Write the structure tokens for this entry.
Amino acid sequence: MKSFWKQYNRPILCLVLVVVIMLSFVLRLFNWQVVVGDYYRDEVATTANYRLTSDETRGEILDVNGVALETNTTAYSVTINKLYISQEMTVNDVIMELFIIFQERNTPWIDPLPIVVDESNKYQFDYSNENAESTLESMRSEEMLDLGVYATATDFMDAFVERYELEDYAHLPDLCRNLVSVRYNMEMTAFSNTNPYTFAEDIDTELSTIIAEFSQSMPCIEIVPVSKRLCTDGTLMPHILGVTGSLTAEEYEENKDKGYAYDDIIGKFGIEAAFEDYLKGEPGTKTISKNSDGTLINVVELEPAKPGNSIFLTIDSNLQRATNASLARYVQDAQAAGKAESQQKGEKGHGEDCIAGAAVMLSVKDFSVLAASTYPTYDLTQYSNGDYYASLLEDETLPLYDRAFLGSFAPGSVVKPATALGALEEGIISDYDTITCTQKYDYYPTNIVHCMGTHGPLTVTAAITKSCNYFFADMGRQLGIDTMSLYMEKLGLGEKTGLEISESQGFLAGRDSTSWVAGNTVQAAIGQSDNTFTPVQLATFAATIANDGVRYRTHLVSKITSYDRQEIVLHNDPEKPQVVEDLQLTPYNVDIVQNAMRQVAADPSGTAHSIFGDYSIPIACKTGTAENPGSDHVTFICYAPYDDPQIALAVVLEHGAKGKFSMSVARDMLNAYFFPETIEQTIRENTGVPEPTGPDATSAPATSAPTTTAPVQ
């Protein structure tokens, strides 16, 4: 017996233990289901759990030095939380309480209804809101009011009164109309137990205090701190930064599977849209338990909200400000000079129609955008103002148009270095060969090219220096349009540069032309014919020449970090730029073209010598004048320093007529980069702001004429 127990004691003990545990479970289940089953059934029947989300913080946008461009500030909204509305009140009762508070302080609330009450207490449609037509169409639909196209505003209101059970207020048109506006917006924003309704946004401190005190007795009315987008300088780079806004119905359908709620905001254009996935962040979640009489039982935070990432641009705010100021000034100067000359000569075409321009600066090291300016421009902080936006749409100068990245302009002679490189690489000409310019190139009688002078025998270096049309017309003829277009394309002309936001591809003559005859080639070779390129393409082209024929991806973003900037999420390493094209040009041929571009500024016969002949930083450049309806466009490209390229830039003035104005913009940009201590003075001179006075004033008075004196290193 002892041997038996000794042999089986452990299995027997385990069996007994299992039986005891199972009996305890059976007894517990019997207690839950039979003894106190009624209690738990009542508890389950009277308790409801709701899963709510909390708003995330949108990531910031900063310049290359960490200067905030788009950031966040805290604002306060008034919300109605359906979960906390007691059984004794209706939604209409809650809205009425808020109306009383807001009317006493004459404070606006969110009011989207395109129906008003006129002086005779009759309902009328209100078409002053740009969304009125689409809103009324949505209301009229079969899914909502099911009204015909001839339904009056009164018909709409009668249908809404019935829909929202507002019969008790129908005899008070103003109040009834306001209640309908809120109830309609509640329906459109999916107001529910899990989705509070925002009654008013961005209220002042005094009103938030009043509402906070009032909410002690009505917990369904809440003051909610919200993150509000703040643009630190609305005119600095509005086309690049972009804006955020509420989701449209179409955007909601496209993004709802990504976790967007109906009332979320989203980037509309620019960096805000291009990097929406990085900037948005993730909402937090919590569970609220509430019993049948509305009493809050428990709140459990399941997941805190996660802020979005921060986007660091490659743009330097100081360079951008200086470029903006200079571009604005010289567009205006070109127009003023053109008007004076046109009046004097009694003819048009001297720049009197110059109203716009663009300028772009890149780093040659990695083709990052250091500055990109468009004129005329607008104030991003006023973009959501309906009257302001309407004025922008009506402005014939098109301030909303991003000319730096989307504007496509006839380039003129700035493309001649591309024609020269093609001719040298294909063995059509060497550095010692000459072509004799007799002013009129008439190889194709239907496409005669006129030169600005009779230059006589010219090498390729002299032809670039003096910008001889005759020489390059002949080079284009010998190259042929296919070969010439191929070189231009590989150098970045007529090709998207790789920018993260919208850009135009431009138009490359021959490749993109719908019809072509051989004679058109001579025009294309000098930057005419069908050629139209963007300023950012011209800057990329200049940077590619400076980089010996290697073209990198042009880009606007330096890095993406966590919101606190401690963790790098993405980094465009300037030491490892993305190669888009390597033309593998013969170094000797590249040297010829680069030296010729240097002579454009250094040689007394060079077309840029008047502005850059005495400049203390050696630059390589090319000027351009392009024929158009109206005054000629003037273009300018350059890189600097010539012997150690750091930056490349392009300037285009629409109908600027005189090259000195585009070159003066470029000079200010170079000054801002190489002599940053001059930036504030440059801005003051170009904006007409008076110089500071007193013991700390050291700058010279501002002048109105383009300067030709370089800063001293």
Remarks:
- The two ends are 109 Å apart (CA to CA).
- Residues 39-46, 694-713 have pLDDT under 50 and may be disordered.
- The CA atoms of residues 286 and 301 lie 4 Å apart.
- The chain is about 35% helix and 20% strand.
